[in-house]
DNA sequence: TATCTGATCTTTACGATGTAAAGATAGGGA
DNA sequence: TCCCTATCTTTACATCGTAAAGATCAGATA
């Protein structure tokens, strides 16, 4: 009696094979020679396995399904195992967001490299930004859903900082100025804030489905990417009325 | 024994007076003449009371503290009472978001009215937008945290739609065009998307503390409002490099 | 006027979640 | 060989959302 947890959290030996990456291999233990990989007590690389499991859960069940216990289930360990590696839910989400930022930065960097013409180079970054968010909406959601993130964690702080630096740098190149690290003029700050706000705002609204209304009223078959392009290239016409 | 809920949810008669708005007054019931307002079984205007309680909880404890049970506690009713009026948590959040959108729309409308010069009129709306979000970060968070909202609810759909219409209209006036309801050119769509993305993105980044970095590097004492203004007025200088 | 009905609110119950604390299990140095 | 410590599991508890059944009351009906 007194079974508090009804749903089998651990599922020891009843689920997916677990330990998809034995990797390190230095762990045959005394049970070497035993063909049935019987889920050893010590995982060996649980931390990474949990992060990968978390990413899988996020893509499969969305943000709402991303719980500590769900991740533990997906990795095939007990529900309290993640706590030891990440402290709490905030810890896990923060580390996962760091992973996301690194993927994100890599995607933008590679997009910039493949661009040839100046115009393409200017548009490559924003397009890659939105493309990443569309391809990984869950990840993007975590990265910019600050309320449950701990930016004092070095890995997250660092990865997010790199993302910002890349953006500021790109804006600087666009203006053919050197952006000095520590001081900004109002115009420089405004340019950076504009670029970031525009792309981030567009992405957020797009993922939240708030642009459907606009997209539906545009000429037949206009994609979000096309709208973004127009938004960034078409000159602003502000004839202030008398 | 078998007390599942330990924390006193109801707190009948041990908490704040409850029924801060007897309003309707047509409810003395047979117990009329009883001086001690002993929390009648039927509240009379629970729905509105719950929404106000929710707003209070949101401002006091933030988004994380806004739970069905917390709202019920704040209103001094049983934890299951809100369900009857809103169905589930999504229902309550959606109705609360609708309240927020109405406040939001009213704030923007009044800001536009008080502006005199054309430039001021052009900036009034974005400024009011950001100002509302800064004054009511919790509300803004709910309004644009789509994952837990049900836009099929008429009140929410309507209030949010009005917000969008106001924006589109403002952009149209800026371009001295009539925005026809059902069709948009690419340039018109781009202009609307740009305005909305810029203001929404700026607000989101500001509330998430992601602009602190920029603001700290700007000339001493530059406020977020000033940065917004610069972002919206300073011409875009994009000298594409060869 | 007495009764009935439906809306409103409370009680009780259940599964799920985050988190803390204590126990089990090895890997690696003494 | 033995023990220490990091790693993982068990157990426990408070809280949350939600469903279902019971209590209460206002107003319609007879």
Automatic annotation (TrEMBL), chains A, B:
Keyword DNA-binding carried by entry: yes
Biased composition (Low complexity): 13-27
Record domain HTH tetR-type: where: 44-104
Zinc found in the keyword field: no
Region of interest (Disordered), residue spans: 1-43
MF terms in GO: DNA-binding transcription factor activity; transcription cis-regulatory region binding
DNA-binding region per Swiss-Prot/TrEMBL record: 67-86
Swiss-Prot/TrEMBL keywords: DNA-binding, Transcription, Transcription regulation
One Pfam family from the record: TetR_N
Domain of life: Bacteria
Biased composition (Basic and acidic residues): 1-12
Name the UniProt record assigns to this protein: Transcriptional regulator
Species this protein is from: Bradyrhizobium nitroreducens
């Amino acid at each position: 009696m007194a079974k508090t947890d009804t749903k089998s959290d651990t599922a020891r030996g009843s689920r997916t094979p677990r330990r998809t990456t034995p990797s390190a291999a230095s762990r045959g233990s005394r049970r070497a020679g035993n063909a049935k990989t019987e889920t050893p007590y010590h995982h060996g690389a649980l931390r990474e396995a949990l992060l990968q499991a978390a990413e899988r859960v996020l893509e499969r069940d969305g943000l709402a399904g991303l719980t500590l216990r769900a991740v533990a289930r997906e990795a095939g360990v007990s529900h309290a195992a993640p706590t030891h590696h990440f402290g709490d839910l905030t810890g896990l989400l923060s580390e996962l967001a760091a992973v996301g930022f690194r993927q994100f930065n890599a995607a933008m960097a590679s997009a910039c490299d493949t661009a040839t013409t100046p115009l393409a180079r200017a548009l490559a970054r924003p397009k890659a930004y939105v493309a990443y968010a569309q391809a990984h909406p869950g990840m993007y959601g975590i990265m910019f859903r600050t309320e449950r993130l701990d930016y004092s964690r070095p890995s997250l702080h660092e990865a997010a900082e790199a993302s910002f630096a890349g953006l500021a740098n790109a804006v600087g190149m666009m203006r053919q100025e050197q952006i000095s690290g520590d001081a900004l003029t109002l115009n420089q700050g405004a340019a950076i804030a504009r670029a970031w706000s525009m792309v981030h705002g567009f992405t957020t609204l797009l993922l939240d489905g708030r642009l459907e209304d606009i997209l539906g009223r545009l000429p037949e078959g206009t994609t979000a990417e096309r709208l973004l392009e127009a938004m960034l290239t078409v000159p602003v016409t502000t004839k202030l009325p008398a």
